[in-house]
């Protein structure tokens, strides 16, 4: 595979210039392998604005008009989530280069990129398949992309009182949550917002979805795990007559009475994993899973 001219599409954080300095190292490694390099136009413009663009200018693409063998996400997990949506149904494996903080999804440090790239060219990598979710709201057109790798949540808006969320699973009533909100998360998102609200950690590829209430009024309402093939429908009532819909953190205001349908997206996100790096290793390393401070 070392002689193949692989194509790499690069996406990146466009908010903090200092986190983009490692682009030179990434481009250098790719050029050393003779790779064809493509870069997302907003990221390219950002690099040029702050003088971070390498001298050898790569090809630039707009929107989803690109073809590649791999995608590279440069930033934190937030950037990775945006990259996953952009890649969508192209079924391109994503390598996350962590220039952010936690880096649970983007787990390759800039200094490790060369080793990770060698593993790709030597065929020593694996891919983890992660289910995504899709939300629809009937005839209303959403302002943001309807796909989420982590979670989709309905939340109370501003300082409004808690909201009522009538929830059905495959057309059958489950419960009406009286809460500040409800999180519908994938296994990938189980270690994110859902976990901070008491949801369980769910291993990828289990084909499940978790419903986790946010600050529920009743203590006998607990998170519930359902089949990933199920369709979740929500109807929200609020004293302010509106609420927030957050799709991987991209939020917009909807009016009371808007019907929300959440189901499995028509694609999966494939994440590149290096030898010796898997989900459980990330749990132990990034989240200190099982760490016993009494041994210090």
From TrEMBL:
Keywords: ATP-binding, Cytoplasm, Kinase, NAD, NADP, Nucleotide-binding, Transferase. The keyword Kinase applies. The active site is at residue 77. One of its GO terms (molecular function) is NAD+ kinase activity. SUPFAM superfamilies: NAD kinase/diacylglycerol kinase-like. Its cofactor is a divalent metal cation. It comes from the Bacteria. NAD(+) binds at residues 77-78, 82, 150-151, 180, 191-196, 215. It is found in: Cytoplasm. GO terms for biological process: NAD+ metabolic process; NADP+ biosynthetic process. Pfam families: NAD_kinase, NAD_kinase_C. This is NAD kinase. It comes from Leyella lascolaii. The lineage of its organism: Bacteria, Pseudomonadati, Bacteroidota, Bacteroidia, Bacteroidales.
